[in-house]
Design a protein that fits this description.
about 475 residues, mainly alpha, Amino acid/polyamine transporter I, two-stranded antiparallel sheet, 19 helices, about 0% strand, globular
């Protein structure tokens, strides 16, 4: 068996030594909050406008399409997570089913989903703080609010929030997850406030014409892909993150039950939230009024235009308060992916040390935090953030493929959760993700292959020889 195709058995994945096993502290409410905390972030507050500009009122269908693809992925994740209830998510499943080479690519791609996105959200949070500081007239030099690649010197707000989140994760998983529940409730309260007030101005006439740009993906003169499917490839950004729940498998009490509830429950809840918010937004105001010049904060603009100025300020404040929950969940997921790769020997194994008192990988969490801080402090991620979509789509494809391959290879293995209609759900997930990846800008696709090319160089230089399987370690 070659290095690229050698597999870590499911039994070896589950049988972990105490020194490298994470502490079980999470229940299903924590898992649903982790999923909702990752999914309901800046996406719903911004991409409603962006998507409406590409698809018109039919952006509701775009959200449904993304929700359907993610629902298929959620079922596949639930089966694999309960079958292999340890940290690592798509990377771990790929290692046990598809082989070490593909597992490395999946793990390396997940860096794009978690680290780049966490840094981007930190920069976005810093932008909101800058606007508040400017409005207060505090006179802070703008050079201290932007990184060197964004026309400034250093982004201090982004550094501060990433640093605070890192400390929270070091303190303990349960403590971080409990705070996340509180922040998630704030975000949901803001969306409920928007729906209640905007619904009072709902006008069905705003849905005509329903799909002014068609249902396919047609490239416009500005290089953007218009139509329902074109918008779906963009608003998919608002859905990624639910797979973070599966990275918490090893830290979950009663994983057989709680993982299924957390993964499927958070995905169903968030899809319903997105469709309701998008429907109310388009119904309350013509998409032409908020989809172009106000696509950065369409929900706030709609409330302001409907003479709900105080409510608009409350929603904007809730975004500032609650956005750190997205950073927290993304950094949590990334630290666990790195942790498991180090535990398998593909990265330096000393990084997989677990604190005896806190039960968390302190060193790996610190390293993840430093990487996010460095990126958020210096970089302009307006284009690089698109890479997060490709990383997520890669993970979804790998999990669906792992579920199908294992159904053929080991059909009699007991499964605590079984994906319904696996030979429909699995292919729909794979084909849907491939189409969305194909619909992304060409530069994003090129960067993705360049990123994984660099990753494979690292694998061949270090991971291929240092992995436990290469050294015949159990």
């Amino acid at each position: 068996m070659s290095a690229l195709t050698r597999r870590k058995t499911i039994e070896a994945s589950v049988a972990l030594e105490g020194a490298h096993r994470l502490k079980q502290t999470l229940s299903w409410p924590h898992l649903i909050a982790i999923g909702v905390g990752a999914i309901v972030g800046t996406g719903i507050y911004t991409l409603t406008g962006v998507g409406a500009g590409l698809a018109g009122p039919a952006v509701v269908i775009s959200f449904l399409i993304c929700g359907a693809i993610c629902a298929c992925a959620a079922f596949c994740y639930a089966e694999m997570a309960t079958l292999i209830p340890v940290a690592g998510s798509a990377y771990t499943y790929s290692y046990a089913v598809l082989g070490e080479g593909l597992a490395w690519i999946v793990g390396w791609s997940l860096v794009l989903e978690y680290t780049v996105a966490a840094a981007a959200v930190a920069v976005g949070w810093g932008g909101h703080v800058e606007s508040l500081i400017t409005a207060a007239g505090w006179g802070v030099p703008p050079e201290l609010m932007h990184g060197v690649f964004s026309g400034g010197l250093i982004n201090i707000p982004a550094i501060l929030i990433a640093g605070v989140v890192t400390l929270l994760l070091i303190l303990g998983t349960r403590e971080s997850a409990t705070l996340n529940i509180f922040l998630v409730l704030i975000k949901l309260a803001a969306l409920v406030l928007f729906v209640v007030l905007a619904m009072q101005s709902f006008d069905a006439a705003n849905f005509t014409p329903f799909a002014p740009f068609g249902y396919g993906a047609t490239q416009g003169a500005d290089g953007k892909n218009y139509g329902v499917l074109g918008a779906a490839a963009i608003v998919f950004f608002a859905f990624y993150g639910f797979d973070t729940v599966s990275t918490a498998a090893e830290e979950t009490k009663n994983p057989e039950r709680n993982l299924t509830i957390g993964i499927v429950g958070s995905m169903a809840l968030c899809t319903a939230i997105y469709v309701v918010v998008a429907t109310v937004a388009v119904g309350a105001m013509s998409y032409t009024q908020f989809s172009k010049t106000h696509d950065a904060a369409p929900l706030v603009f709609i409330l302001q235009s409907l003479s709900h100025g105080t409510a608009a300020e409350i929603v904007a404040a809730c975004v500032v308060i609650a956005i750190p929950s997205v950073i927290l969940v993304l950094m949590y997921g990334q630290s666990r992916i790195f942790f498991v790769m180090a535990r398998d020997g593909l990265l330096p194994e000393r990084l997989a040390a677990v604190s005896k008192s806190r039960g968390t990988p302190v060193l790996m969490t610190m390293l993840t935090g430093l990487v996010v801080i460095a990126m958020a402090a210096t970089m302009d991620l307006s284009q690089i953030v698109e890479l997060a979509n490709v990383g997520t789509l890669t993970a979804f494809i790998a999990v669906a493929a792992s579920m199908l391959v294992l159904r053929m290879r080991d059909p009699s293995r007991p499964r605590l959760f079984r994906t319904p209609l696996p030979w429909v759900v699995g292919p729909v997930c794979i084909l849907g993700c491939l189409y969305l990846a194909w619909s992304l800008p060409t530069r994003t696709q090129i960067w993705f292959f360049e990123w994984n090319g660099a990753g494979l160089v690292l694998y061949f230089l270090y991971g291929m020889r240092a992995s436990h399987l290469a050294r015949a370690k159990p």
